[in-house]
Every structure is written in structure tokens, then in C-alpha cells.
Amino acid sequence: MSLITLDKVTKIYPDEFVALEEISCRIREGEFVSLVGASGAGKSTLLKMIYANERPTYGAIYFGGRDIASIPERLLPFYRRNFGTVFQDFKLLPKKTVFENVAYALEVQGKSNAQIREEVPKILEIVGMADQMDKYPDQISGGEAQRIALARAVIHRPRVLIADEPTGNLDPVSTDEIIRLLLKINELGTTVILATHDQSIVDRLHKRVIVLNQGRIVRDDSQGRYN
Amino acid sequence: MKTIKLFRTFNEGVQNFRRDKWLTAVTVMVMSLALYLIGVSFLSGFGILTVVNNIENRINISMNFDSDIAENEILEIKKEVEKIQEVQSVIYISREDIFNNFNEQYKDSREIMKTLEVIEENPFLTSLLVTADNVEHYENINTYLTKTYKNKMYSNYDKNKGTIGELHNFIVFIRNVSLGLGAIMIIISILLNLNTIRMSLYANRKEFEIMRLVGASNLYVKLPTVFEGFLYGLTSSFLTIVALIITVYATDPFIKKMLPDVKIAEFYTKHIIEICLIVIALGVVLGTISSYIAIRRYLEK
What we know:
The complex is a heterodimer. By secondary structure, chain A is an alpha/beta fold. Chain A is built from seven helices and ten strands. Chain B has eleven helices and four strands; from the N terminus they run ααβαβααβαβααααα. In chain B, helix 2 runs antiparallel to helix 7, helix 2 crosses helix 9 and helix 7 crosses helix 11. The model of chain B has no long low-confidence stretch (mean pLDDT about 85).
């Protein structure tokens, strides 16, 4: 059974720009899906639709069989807790330390302080940032910031990890490190949706590849390559 | 919301307040200025109203009784006049008192004293000084008094009517202007305050987006900001109280020289607790509500 189903999803912005056109596909639980395409192909828009940051103009998106359009606005934060998100610009909270940034994902869910004190160092250990817990985002490198973002995205054990161009601002070494972590997270059972336009990454993964072009799916290969 | 989450949002508000030192300093300074403007408007209003009230209290109708009217009868009339609804007070002044006061006042003027000697008797009349509760009521009171006691006394109202009317218009004008200016100052302060908080939130707008992405509910994003606004208000009100104390005591000697009746420092000292509580309440309410309104707008977008 599929975890996420997109049924003829179309997104038209107020200026009549068609970002997505009749997108239909299914993503199963535990899959690793690469969403590829040139800039402006609609990758980020599609991801925003999945974690309900934007609503489709037409069509429907189902998560675990439930149409997410039926979720009231006030309950969307709870829906979003099914996801962990990682972005090109890291989106860390600048006034919080590394520890506090990661802990925030647990705090909003009302986890106990004891649980936070136990789990945050563990995940920071996994991403190799345990020794930098007290630093602020502006005191660490881009690669380190992305590892923190990844730790924050998965600490609450989401069902889906959404990574939108996570290596876009990183050097090759940091890129390898992030991809290795994404694969590890996927191996542990989390569904990963990776949006990228980095051909070398996609070709190395040997995972499912969905190619978008001008808002339409032009290819969907179960063990695909970029081209 | 769970208690632990409430505690966390409060903690976060304190953290933001502490860590964003520059933004906090600017916001608190502008908020203090806004509160200070309200405080100064209030104290100026108090001064102006004191002066105006003093002028108003000096206006009265003098009922001058014929010398053959007995004191008892005048005192009876006093009681009757006091019963008139529009009358605030009636003061009895005997002709002897007036004579003694006059002598005392002009004892150094030889000419006046000589004139009195020529007259050889007390030329003054026993009077009742009638003060109305409102300047507008003098006309009606005078008509009633002249009609009722027309054979026993004459009033000075008609002679002073023009001056009283002008004074009345002036008092109304000053009151309206000071109330209008006070209201404008308060509105400016509230807008200034709202805008300052909105600008400080604008600097943090990206963080609200991140918080929501991480799974924070709108309330969880809102509350730290509201607590932060509360702290801005509280700190600003303390600064304002200090600034007002300095202003009041520094300007008091000059005000006393120009307007001896205006006792701002005494008023401030007497009501210091109430003034502090009002400023703190105003600061806290303004800070909290402004933050709430501003953050709500951001989260609605």
C-alpha cells in the first residue's frame, strides 16, 4: 500500500503560472525517491504540497489513505510531524544553539526534558556534531549546519524525510556525508524524498527516480539515473 | 496546551529577550519613549486642568444685601440658595469682615483711608458669594436669584457677565485643546508602540516559518512572542517611571515659579504607587497586545 498518493495534482499560482500539471504518482512506505529536474521544474512546489505548506489548485494528495485537504488548518502542525524537512539553506533557528535547534523538534511535541536530554546528544553523535552542541548556527560550517538540520529532521522519528536540495550549498565532502546519512536513515525504515538537480548523486544512488519537466512527470524509473 | 509547553514558550520568550540584545534595546527604548509621551501628556493635562479649575473657582456671583436686611434673614437665604441644584457653594461674608479685610488690604494707601474716614461708616454690604457647579449655570442662577430676592439684594453678575462669558469660552477651549492633544499623544504612542513591535517581529519572520515547518503549532509560535512583548512592556514601564520621576522633580521648581497653584511634584509623590501601577499596566498591556496583533498577522500570511 502506498504511503503518499498524488492524484492529478495541479498548482496554478495567482499570476497564472502553472507550477505543476496533473501530477499523479504513489510513494510507498520505506522508499527512497529522487525527484529530479532543472530549476523551476516544480520539485520544491511538489514537496511543499506533500507537507501541506501549499494547497493544490486541483487534484488531491492522500497520506496514509487520508485526503490532506480534509485536515483543518489548526491540525496541520500535527500532520507535519509525520515529516522531517531539510533545505538547501538549512533553516536553523539563529538564536538557538545546536543542541536547542535539535531539541526544538521534540519540545514542540511536548516530550519531557529527560527524554530530550537523552535523545539529542545521541542523534548529534550519529551526525558527528556531539562536540559542537553549544555553538550557534553562525559559528559552524555549511556542511555542519546541514548535519544539524538533518538531526533535527529525524529526531522525532518521522515517517517521511523530505530533503529539498540539501547539498546545494555544500562542498563534495559534505555532500557525500549528507547522502550517506540519508541512505542510513532510509535503511532504518524512513521514507526519503530527495529533490536535487545534482546528476552525480542520483546516478550513484540506484534508487527510484522521478523526473519533472515544466511541472509534469516525464519519467518515473524504479532504479533510474538522472538522464 | 500542556504545562510543560507553556513553561517552554515562556522560557523561549525570555531567551529571545535576552539573546537579541540590540533588538531588545531598540524596542525597549522606543516603547519607553511612547510610554513617556503618555505620562508627560497626563501630567501636563493635570497641570493645565489645575490652572483652569483654579480660574473657574474664582468666578462667583456676589449677592449684596441691603443694610437693613438682618443677618438671620441672610443666613436663611443662604440655606435656600444652597438647595439650588446647580449651586456648588455659598459663602457668607458679613459687612464687618469685608470692611476689616479692606482696611487690612489698603492700610498703606493714605487716600483710600482718608476717603473711609470721610464716609464715617462702613460702606460695605453683607454678601453671599455663590459659586455654580458649572460656569454655564451662572446665567440661570442669577436670573433666579434676582427674581426671588429682588427687593433685598442686587447681584454683580450683569456687570461681570461679559468677562465671565469670555472666561467660560477660554476654559472650554483650553480643556478641549488639552484633551484633544492628550488623545492625539496617546494614539501616536500606541501606533509607535505597535509599529516597533511589528518591526522587531519582521526581523524574526523567517524563524516563524521554520518553527512551523518543524511542527510547532501556531499557538506554540505565538506565545514566546507574546511573552517577549510582555517583557518589553515591563522593562519599558520601569524605564518610563524613572524618566517621569526625573522629569517631575527637575521641572517642579520652574513650574512652581510660573504657576504656584500647580503642584505636580506633590501630586506625583502622593500618588506614586497608583502612577507606577498605571504605567506598568499600560506598558504590559500595550507590549502584550501589540505583540499578539503583530504575530497574528504574520502567521495568517
